[in-house]
Each structure stands twice: as structure tokens, then as C-alpha cells.
User: What shape does this take?
Amino acid sequence: MNEEPASGIDSAADRAFVHARLIDAPRERVFRAFSDPAHLARWWGPKGFSNTFQAFDFRPGGRWQFIMHGPDGRNYPNESVFVEVVAPERIVVEHVVGHHFELTITLTAQGERTLVGWRQVFDTAAERQRIADFVTEANEQNLDRLATEVWNVA
Assistant: This one.
């Protein structure tokens, strides 16, 4: 995604949600919670959601296709492409079905803990604003679920 604002284009800061969480687990364990689809399916998404993965090709250019099952009984198809995978420090995902955005996840070792950076950039500031009430809390719930799931990672 283009980070530089062009004439008439919203800046990346106006289009982004930025979160961070210090997780009580080593960086390699946190990375495995992302890279192992069995673990990822258990924690991905807001509280109350579950996932069924159809495709998970964890490499640059690889597809990630899945259905999120909401607590409301609805199914939400999702498809993303892994743009960048740098073990164990960075994952970049382009979400291509539904809301279009690029998600950059950084993992920074802090002793035996990991600082997880979560930067989600939408195409426009208007789109970001339209879904802000839901996404802000949903992203925090996602990080809550990750912090719990790392204890199941060997």
C-alpha cells in the first residue's frame, strides 16, 4: 500500500488503526501462534468468533482463505494474501475480500516477552471512520485472544 499521500488522498495515519500489546511469551512462540493454522484459527477474530480455514499458504504471495463464524450465527467469508513473512519478526497481510486493508504485525523481543505491533491501514479515512467503533474494540479482543493462545503453543 502506498504510504505517501498524493494530492487529494488521505494520509496513512488518517486511514490506520494502530494497537500494541506486550505479550508474556517469547517472540518465537508468538510467531508460531500466527504461523500455525491450528493455533491461528483458535484466536483470530473478536471475542465469540470461530474460524474455518480453507487455504493457508503462509509465505509471501500465499493465500489465506477462511470463514469467520460470528456469535450471531452468521458466516463472514475472508480472503487475504500474505505480502511479507519475516520469521519471527514481521507479517504483512493484504485483506482482499470484504473490507480492503493491509495489516502489518511486528513482533519485537523484550526479554522473554514480545511487543506485538498491529497496524491496519484502510484505503480511505472515510472507510476507517465508518467501521472505527467496531474495529477498535475487535482488534483489542483479537490481541486478548492471542495473549491467551500463546500458552497453548509448544
In short: The CA atoms of residues 46 and 141 lie 5 Å apart. The longest strand covers residues 75-86. The chain has one domain: 16-152. The chain is about 25% helix and 40% strand.
